[in-house]
Amino acid sequence: MSDNPLLEKSDLPNQTPHFDLIKTEHYLPAIKEAIEEARQNIDKIKNCRQDPTFPNTIIALETASETLGTVASVFYNQLSAMGGDELHALATEIGPINSNFSSDVMLDADLFARVKAVYDIRDTLELNAEEKTLLEDTYKGFVRSGALLDDDKKARLREISQELSTLNPAFMQNAVKSAESFELIIEDEKDLSGLPDGTIDAAAHAAEEKGYDGKWLFTLDYPSFGPFLQYADNRELREKIWKAFTNRAWNDEYDNSENIKKIISLRKERANLLGYNTHAHYVLEERMAKSPETVFAFLDKLKAAYKPAAQKDLETLKDFAEKEHGLDEIKPWDIGYYSEKLKQKLFDFTSEDFRPYYQLDKVLD
C-alpha cells in the first residue's frame, strides 16, 4: 500500500478524504502517480486488439483517470478553501502537468479513432439513457478539445492550454494576496459607531492576533467588511473599505491587468481555433442557454421587469438618506448602510435581530 493518504482508499463514511493526514508534500507525488496510472489504463484501451465497443472504449476511458480525478479534486478544493503560499505555488506546478496530460489524451488520434468508431454506430447499440449521454459527452469532449484539428492547430491548442494552466492560478493568487494585504486598523473607538457588538468583538480579536493590541482590525473577508459597510456610521471609512474591495488586484503590486488581458486573448484564440466566434459561444454550447444571444435576450427580459422597480427603490433610498442625514448624493458604499437604516425605520428591526436564529444548533433543530 502507498504511504500517501491521497492514494489510499479512505475508510471514512462516503470515502471522505483523510484531511487530517494529507500534507502539502503529498499532492505532487500523488498527481504524478495518478497520471502514470491513467496513462497505463489508456494505453490498454489503445492497444486493445478487439474492435472498439462501448465497454472496452467508452466505459474504460471514463474510469481510466478516476484516481487522478479524486486527487485533483481534493487539491483544488483545498486551494480554493485554504489558499496559502505553498498551495498556490504548487498550483503553478500541478497545472501544467495536468494540462499536458489532458492534451495528450484528448489530442491522441488513435484514442479518438476508437471513440469515434463507437460513436458512429451509436444508433445500432442498445444503450440506456445514461449510456447514450456518456457516449455523446465523450465524443463531444474530444471534438471540443481539438481532436478534429490538424497537427499545427493541435500544437497551438496545446500551447494555449499550457499557458492558461499557469495564468488562472496566478490570477487567483494575485486576487487573494491583494485582498490579504489590506488592513483597516481602527484606533479611535468612535469610529466603531453603529457596528454590532459581535462585529466589534471579532475585529478586536483579529487585531489582537496580528499584534495590534487595543485596536480593531477589519479586512476584506466578507464577515469583516460586509457588516462594516452595512452598519458603520463613519462614511469615509466605508468608502475606504469599499474601494479596497472593489479594486482588489488592480493598480497595486498584485495587479492582474496583464493576466486578464492574456487570459481573454488566449480564450478567444482557443475558441476561434475550435470554430467558435467567441469564448462565450464555446462555453455556452454545453450549457442550458446554448448561446450568448439567448443569454442577452434573457437579461434584457429581466432588465425590463426589474429596472423600474430597482429605480424606484433607489429613489426611495436617496430621499431617505437626504431627509435623515442630509446626504446630497448616494454612493455605492452608502447603499447597504442606508438600506439597513431604512429597513429599521419601516419595520422596526435590523438584520442583527435574526442572528440568534442563525446559530448552528438552532439551524440543525
3D structure, described in words:
The protein has 365 residues and is mostly helical. It is 67% helix and 2% strand. It has 15 helices and 2 strands. Strands 1-2 form a two-stranded antiparallel ribbon. Helix 7 packs antiparallel against helix 11. The longest helix is centred in the C-terminal third of the chain and has 34 residues, at 292-325. The model has no long low-confidence stretch (mean pLDDT 93).
Which descriptors would you attach to this protein?
single chain; two-stranded antiparallel ribbon; 15 helices; globular; mainly alpha; 365 residues
Provide a concise account of the structure shown.
The protein is mainly alpha-helical. It has helices at residues 24-46, 54-64, 66-81, 85-106, 109-120, 129-144, 151-181, 197-209, 222-231, 235-246, 257-273, 279-284, 292-325, 332-347, 360-364; strands at residues 184-186, 216-218. The longest helix is centred in the last third of the chain and has 34 residues, at 292-325.
SSE order and pairing:
Elements: H1 24-46, H2 54-64, H3 66-81, H4 85-106, H5 109-120, H6 129-144, H7 151-181, E1 184-186, H8 197-209, E2 216-218, H9 222-231, H10 235-246, H11 257-273, H12 279-284, H13 292-325, H14 332-347, H15 360-364
Antiparallel strand pairs: 1-2
Helix pairs in contact: 1-2, 1-3, 1-4, 4-7, 5-6, 7-11
